[in-house]
Design goal:
Blueprint: H1 7-57, H2 61-89, H3 98-123
Helix pairs in contact: 1-2, 2-3
């Protein structure tokens, strides 16, 4: 400690340094969380698509109906997320914002998927 420095100044500096370290650690953890979440989401969607393919092959209408319900649920989830993003980011946020684009693409994807399942069910 410097002679002109008080104990409280030194303590404040240490607290700020610790806070900065925690903030940096949380940023790293957040990035890791996002990465893991993306991987898990991809796995879940892949599993759903494989289950649909198997159900179609086996002409299992019960499993296809369940898959359509899952797909419809994803549509509802992403529509709610779209509304939340609009509230958080503001209505003026451009549609080319990466978050908005991703959510919009997922809504489109799952609506199409639900429609395709509906068509397949009509064939049985």
């Amino acid at each position: 400690m410097k002679p002109t420095e008080s104990i409280t100044d030194s303590k404040k500096e240490k607290e700020e340094a610790v806070s900065q370290d925690l903030a940096e650690e949380q940023e790293i953890n957040f990035e890791e969380y996002v990465r893991i979440s993306e991987e898990k989401y991809d796995q879940i969607v892949t599993h759903l698509l494989k289950a649909i393919a198997i159900a179609e092959k086996n002409k299992d209408s019960k499993k296809l109906k369940a898959a359509k319900e899952v797909s419809d649920t994803w549509v509802g989830y992403f529509e709610s997320l779209e509304e939340l993003l609009a509230d958080l980011l503001g209505k003026e946020t451009p549609s080319n914002n990466p978050s908005n684009q991703f959510v919009s693409e997922q809504i489109t994807f799952f609506k199409k998927l639900s429609g395709e399942i509906e068509n397949k069910l009509a064939e049985f």
